[in-house]
Amino acid sequence: MADITALEAHFQNTIDQEIKIEPKDWMPDAYRKTLIRQISQHAHSEIVGMLPEGNWITRAPSLRRKVALLAKVQDEAGHGLYLYSACETLGVERNELVEQLHDGRAKYSSIFNYPTLTWADIGVIGWLVDGAAIMNQVPLCRCSYGPYARAMVRVCKEESFHQRQGYEILLTLSKGTEAQRRMLQDAVNRWWWPSLMMFGPNDADSPHTAQSMKWKIKRFTNDELRQKFVDVCVDQAKLLNVTLPDPDLKWNEERGHYDFGEINWDEFWQVVKGHGPCNKERIDTRRRAHEEGAWVREAAMAFAEKQARRRAEESSQVA
Amino acid sequence: MNHLLNYTLQIADNALILGHRLSEWCGHGPILEQDIALTNLSLDLVGQARSLYQYAAKVEGHGRTEDDMAYLRDEMDFKNVLLVEQKNGDFGRTIVRQFLFDAYHLPFYEALQRSHDETLAAIAEKSLKEVTYHLRYSSEWMIRLGDGTEESHRRVQTALDELWRYTAELFQPSATDEAMLAEGIGVDLGAVKSRWESTVAEILRVATLQQPDSNWMQNGGKAGRHTEHLGYILAEMQYLQRVHPGAEW
Prior knowledge:
The complex is a heterodimer.
Chain A: H1 2-16, H2 29-48, H3 50-54, H4 63-88, H5 94-102, H6 119-137, H7 146-174, H8 178-197, H9 209-214, H10 222-240, E1 250-252, E2 257-259, H11 265-275, H12 279-292, H13 294-318
Antiparallel strand pairs in A: 1-2
Chain B: H1 3-23, H2 32-60, H3 66-71, H4 82-85, H5 91-112, H6 118-146, H7 150-163, H8 175-182, H9 189-206, H10 229-237, H11 239-243
């Protein structure tokens, strides 16, 4: 018991000194569990997040946009890959994590349970969804767990590129035809509130925040990040000539921040529980891809085994 | 008829339609790594199509753009071979389609590098690096699936039997192919064919697959007579450009 206390003290001391925790270091079980949950959720979000945007690849309105969107969705697959790898350093296999996603034990970002209905959604996802993700993720580059922090450096670089790309789609729409501007405003109306929900429950309702901050997994609270996001978006919305769908949104001189309206937490929890517009489609699609790919994975494994056997036979003949 | 324009479009349409088909996989691959790989192939091919359409637009000289070429031509104007517009099916079928085309695409670009048309030669040279990788990728998967499990063998053999009828068209010269060959711009498809035959025979042998009989061949793509699939591809791909004429995206 005394040993554990000493280990925990050493562990916390390492974190307080801003030294990274590495896979082979001792860590409390709860720290490991929290990280596995968070990193795998993050990885799943990247993979499920491919679907709403992938929905528009075959309908992208120009070759340049098509290539950019393909590359973006592919980047997300790449993020998923290195986040799964970061998670594997904590002692869980990717297969096991994917199983947890498919059977509903693991969560992913609820934002991807909303549908992409027009081309403007692709721009708005870049601007607001990737924008909110960046707010959340930039501090993670300094996360106390080394492999996660390093993965996040790469992820953030690519995400900020995606965000600019998304915003540029919207700028083009904002200067376009009436139909295009209508598409743009409609997409902003649908995505604004779900984007604010991406920062999670209010601090008062976020029981894990204090511990995560002590472990330096988290650096800012949900509400701090949400506020920062709102402040940044207001000016960007003006440039696009769109209205953010919140009558309570106004500058508060005293706070030096924008005030904004109450989030519909019922909707938030409904979607988290699986009752959003696309929860079922998203998971069904992932499951189907996995199940329909089973014979491919089996064939690849069978072939690799055959090859190994053949090599072994050849070398025994040589000997 | 402007043969150089037609010829460039033939090459471009093959790349775009196959690239489009592959892009349908994005997010749905059997393994995350293969999802990424198929998207790479798609990106390469759409990239090749863009260079070729830009050149086609220049050759035509009517001020049209790469997007006009891709989004505002009708079904009968598309000159791609029937093979590339066939549905993805399962991963095995996609691999077979890819392999049959890659085995043609590689020697085609190799020869096109020596074209008297400098732009086509330059595009071929750049594309060749990509296509060399494509053929390696699809060949490896042909072998893996052919010589993998009973099920994977059965699936690729079936796909091979079904897609085989679209292979002869690759080597059937159109009037444009003949005119361009005569001018030293186009490629000798007879020579490409013998390269294709030996690649295919070799990979099928290693993959333990049977080469299908060649007595029932389909063609028409180069002349704009397609299978029913192309109409759906274009309906989906061109929809925004068609609904909002003249809009910038």
